[in-house]
Amino acid sequence: MSRFAIAALAALGLASVAMAQGMPKPTTLVDRPSATGGEKLYVEHCAMCHGPNGMGTGLLGRRVQPALLEQRSGLAAQYVIMAARRGIGNMPPITRGEVSDADLKQIADYLAAGPHPSPSGAAK
Amino acid sequence: MADIPLPRGFTAAKMSQAQKAFEAALGADKVFFTDLDRTAYEDKFAIDDARHHPAGAIAPTSVEEVQAAVKIANQFRLPLWPISRGKNLGYGTSAPELAGSVVLDLSRMKRIEFDEANGVVTLEPGVGFYDLYDYLQQHKLPFWLSTPGNSWGSVIGNALDRGVGYTPYGENTKNFCGMEVVLPTGEVVRTGMGAFSNAPTWGLYPFGFGPAWDQMFVQSNFGIVTKANMWLMPEPESLMGMDVEYDKPEDIKAMIDTIGPLRRERVLQQSPSIGNWLRAAAVLTRRTDWTDKPGALGDDVIDAIRKKFAIGWWGVSLRLYGREGVNKAAYTILENAMNAIKPLSIKPTSWVKGQPMEYSGWTGTPMTFPMQNINWYGGRGGHIGFSPLLPQDGTAALAQFKRTYARYKEYGMDYQGSFAFGERHLINVNAMIFNKDDPKMMSRIDPFFRQLVADAKAQGYGEYRTHLDYMDLVATTYDWNGGALRKLNEKVKNALDPNGILAPGKSGIWPTNYAGERKA
Q1: How many angstroms separate the CA of residue B192 from the nearest CA in chain A?
Q2: N or C: which end of chain B has fewer CB within 10 A?
């Protein structure tokens, strides 16, 4: 069983694991002190699902690698916008109330400029 | 352009006028009425995709803008459906009960204020668990959250729907201490000590003077909560506990009869949740990894799942929070009690401040990965939950489990059940995971759900929270004295909201002008 799987089981309250083996820390803005623009907006609005322990990363990892969106290349900005607004697969649509068109464009442009293997200010 | 869903008595022209009024009051960048907007605010996990379609949405960013929106809604007699962040997946997401309502999206209201001395945070509805988690770290505040399995949503929105977490502060709605509310007629009130100008105790004493109203605005349609105080748990010195597995379905009786007294005595102060084998398998794997047979999973597959993950039929995690010396003493009590009912395994865990932290619900870490379970059947996944309230009685819980498990087999669905402790009650959460791309499966969900409601009703068990489709049905099960509570709710509703503009149908509460919309 993978370390993630063991840790996930522990987090679900279904199996034991030493705490040192736990899930990765969720990525939030405190982990990216230098992030600006699209990267900052991505961390704020997307990382909960597309960060290291997110649902989106887990499900994408079943069919595509790398599963972390920031590490992907070839993501067209218009595709990102369409996927976010319409939803895709198990991902619900992201409404304009939650993320404005202007902010979504910055996020899409940031992902389209990927891969970002070492995002700015990220804890190494 | 598709037809705009409209509430009864509305025309497209009148809706267009209302849209223009919202744009004039809030600005066009906070008003969303395109076809794509309407689709985006629908229920992602809908059982029936034809229901609960909004006419549009608006996103005010201040209490004054909320008041302005309410004023327009009253002018046009237009129903509004408030959401905090709209992530209530499994209960309706951001969609309104009444089709044609305008979603009042509060996700842009994200102010956080923190009283560190008292551990009280004042939140607007758009603040999500990840936002607050980040805020605590940015400001190096030694407090932990109480996070649900889907932490994408709003902190106060979750508490307003009586969501739960796993720490001693896990019954989130109990952590409210004073609210700011816009009433359906536009006035702003503050509850508790917030009614007393400049009181330094708004977030400290929940009751104020005279009636205490916080719970009146929970799961209701009596007002729009624009701000609320919540108590957070101080970071403990120590976290200890154990993960315990039991072998047989019948072991649920002894588990509940052992844990219940410890919970009521407060040796155990958090809210453990006993769950079955599918909780792990559905998150970490897909059904096709195990079998291609239709119908509920057979014992051979269940055995294979248990073997792979080294888990029991049921598992439970117990955790102790606070001073290390106290936890050590309590741990011995828990260990003796759980060993006495012959577990498959007990695995201890221990942490003290300064050590590497476990990033899980036990430490109030926000998470979204448990929602991976919606991929269990493949396709466009979703789930709803049937969650009746039971006493902490092992015999009753075992009987309820047997009835429910038999129904899962009858309807050909894989069983994901849990029994979550409150202080005196159990919430028996039965998740129905489904694949929206499987029409045959989807056709079984509604009759299955209704059967479970009827089965539970016969035992005196009512749901604590439900999906939009079943709010009226569940409200009818609260039927004592001719449904006196619903009559009271609707008397209050009509008094506070004479035009019936706020969330008609929420929790089965309908204002008189929409009473004809009630379903069963």
Answers
A1: 31
A2: N
Residue pLDDT, tens place only, B2-45: 689 999 989 999 999 999 999 999 999 999 999 999 999 999 99
pLDDT at site B1:
57
Angstrom distance (rounded) from CA B143 to CA B364: 9
* Among B39, B152, B380, beta carbon nearest to A89: B380
Q: Are residues B243 and B230 in the same domain?
A: no
- Which structural domain range is residue A92 located in? 24-112
The CATH code of the domain that includes A72 is: 1.10.760.10
The verdict on residue A7 lying in a domain is no
Same domain, B396 and B377: yes
Residue B211 vs residues A67, B200, B226, B460: alpha-carbon distances, Å: 53, 20, 20, 29
The total domain count for chain B is 4
Tell me if residue B118 falls in helix, strand or coil.
coil
Cross-chain residue pair B32–A96, CB shorter than 8 Å = yes
Catalytic residues of B: 91, 464-465
Q: Could you tell me the residue range of the domain that residue B121 belongs to?
A: 112-234
Could you tell me whether strands B233-234 and B143-144 are parallel, antiparallel, or unpaired per DSSP bridges? antiparallel
Cβ contacts of B286 within 8 Å, gap of 6 or more: A62, B375, B376, B377, B378
pLDDT tens by residue, A22-79: 688 999 999 999 999 999 999 999 999 999 989 999 999 999 999 999 999 999 999 9
Q: How high is the pLDDT of residue A116? A: 95
ipTM: 0.95
- Residue A124: band (very low, low, confident or very high) from pLDDT cuts 50, 70, 90: very low
Phi, psi of B421 (to 5 degrees): -80, 135
Same domain, B123 and B248: no
Question: Per the domain annotation, does B6 fall within a domain?
Answer: no
- Residue B238: partners with Cβ closer than 8 Å, 6 or more residues away: B320, B321, B322, B323, B324, B327, B350, B351, B352, B353
Classify residue B4: in a domain, yes or no.
Answer: no
Is A14 within 8 Å of B315 when comparing Cβ atoms?
A: yes
The token duo for B47 is 């059982």
Considering the domain boundaries, does residue A2 fall inside one? Answer: no
| A93 assigned to some structural domain | yes
What would you report as the CA-atom Rg of chain A, rounded to the nearest whole angstrom?
15
CA closest to B243 among chain A residues: A16
Residue pair B348/B241 in contact by the 8 Å Cβ criterion: yes
